């Protein structure tokens, strides 16, 4: 694999980052640092391409607005003595999935990493410089990103512009300045940095170098979901999405009312062409409205489902611990009974030995007692390991 001078970068085959156990300093059982960097942005911004270029891994890259990343997934590499995992996240304007599903997957994954002691070293938020306007999906994604991360973790954020090879440099520079002043100012004021990703490994490793030594941070969504046990709809990002869905519902309801009125007029005027076109348009708007309403319902249900799963996991763990304690207590009692029985047998053996010639009581009892005690202690040790 190619690398810049002084850098040591290579891809590795590693277990899921969710299965890695780390200490408070983010080091695994071998003493290596585990660095996690989330890559976010709308579909088409170049998330998978950045990861592929940086890690030299064959990550599937989308074409245009077709989303390839359907779930959060980790791509690992070895870099300068540390294990680096890039989290490739789906965009909020995913081709095949609702924003509610995407938000739920991201918050659940980030929550799971946080529960396991894994904190993020950085977040790279991508925006294509060829997009000449901040349209609805881009604005919605940015609002939710702001709430997902939170102001306290913004100093670990890189706002990376992409696709510079597809835009005239002077035009791209004007858009970059507009982003800094109009849309990203509060993020920059809180510590985020604006950097250009030039589409190659050298540029990707430069982004990585800016984050690997950063103090690990807890995102707002992690704190809300794990520490505060909030429903998804009650998180900052969930509230933003809920507001956006309300706006969309009102917008589609207004369009549907107007389309129906025009359809009635076309029927009265016996305008067959207009009637067909308006009937089709009405159906399309109705479908979009139903999708938004379903998304709103799912947002509330996903939150309750998330809490339910957490409670079930906690209850299961508590029941397992209780069962292990009861089993251990039962074994302790049985061991006491066994020791009493052994003492009785020993006394009887001593009496028999005095009355009859033959092996000493020690020769008879010592191997038996040692064997029984070893078995009991081994089983107690096994139960102790299960209960911890």
TrEMBL record:
Q: Which domain of life is it from?
A: Eukaryota
A single GO molecular-function term is: GTP binding
Q: Which UniProt keywords apply?
A: Coiled coil
Composition bias (Basic and acidic residues) maps to 339-350
**Any idea where the G domain is?**
37-93
Q: Which residues form a coiled coil?
A: 242-276
Presence of the UniProt keyword Methyltransferase in the record: no
Tell whether Coiled coil is among the UniProt keywords.
Answer: yes
The record ties this protein, via InterPro entries, to:
GTP-bd (IPR006073), P-loop_NTPase (IPR027417)
Region (Disordered) residue spans = 339-362
Please give the name of this protein.
Answer: G domain-containing protein
Organism, scientific name: Fusarium piperis
């Amino acid at each position: 694999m190619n690398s810049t001078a002084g850098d040591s970068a290579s891809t590795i085959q590693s277990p899921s980052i969710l299965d890695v156990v780390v200490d408070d300093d983010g080091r695994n059982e071998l003493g290596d640092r585990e660095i996690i960097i989330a890559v976010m942005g709308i579909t088409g911004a170049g998330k998978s391409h950045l990861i592929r270029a940086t890690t030299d891994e064959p990550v599937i890259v989308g074409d245009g607005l077709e989303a390839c990343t359907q779930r959060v997934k980790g791509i690992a590499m070895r870099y300068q003595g540390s294990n680096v995992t890039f989290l490739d996240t789906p965009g909020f304007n995913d081709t095949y999935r609702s924003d509610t599903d995407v938000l739920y997957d991201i918050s659940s994954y980030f929550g799971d990493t946080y529960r396991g002691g894994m904190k993020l070293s950085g977040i790279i938020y991508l925006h294509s410089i060829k997009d000449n306007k901040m349209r609805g999906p881009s604005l919605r994604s940015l609002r939710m990103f702001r709430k997902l991360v939170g102001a306290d973790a913004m100093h670990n954020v890189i706002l990376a512009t992409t696709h510079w090879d597809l835009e005239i440099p002077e035009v791209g520079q004007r858009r970059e300045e507009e982003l800094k002043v109009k849309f990203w100012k509060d993020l920059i004021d809180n510590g985020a940095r604006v950097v250009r990703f030039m589409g190659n490994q050298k540029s990707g490793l430069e982004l990585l170098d800016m984050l690997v030594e950063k103090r690990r941070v807890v995102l707002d969504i992690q704190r809300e979901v794990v520490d505060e046990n909030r429903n998804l709809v009650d998180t900052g990002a969930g509230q933003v999405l809920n507001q956006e869905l309300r706006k969309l519902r009102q917008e589609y309801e207004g369009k549907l009312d107007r389309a129906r009125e025009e359809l009635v007029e076309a029927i009265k005027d016996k305008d067959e062409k207009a009637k067909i076109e308006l009937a089709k348009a009405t159906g399309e708007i109705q479908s979009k409205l139903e999708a938004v309403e379903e998304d709103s319902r799912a947002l509330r249900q996903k939150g309750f489902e998330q809490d339910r799963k957490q409670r079930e996991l906690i209850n299961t763990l508590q029941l397992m611990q209780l069962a292990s304690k009861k089993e251990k207590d039962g074994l302790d009692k049985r061991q006491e009974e066994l020791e009493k029985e052994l003492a009785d047998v020993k006394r009887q053996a001593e009496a028999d030995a005095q009355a009859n010639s033959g092996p000493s009581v020690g020769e008879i009892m010592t191997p038996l007692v040692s064997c029984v005690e070893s078995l009991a202690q081994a089983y107690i040790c096994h139960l102790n390991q299960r209960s911890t």
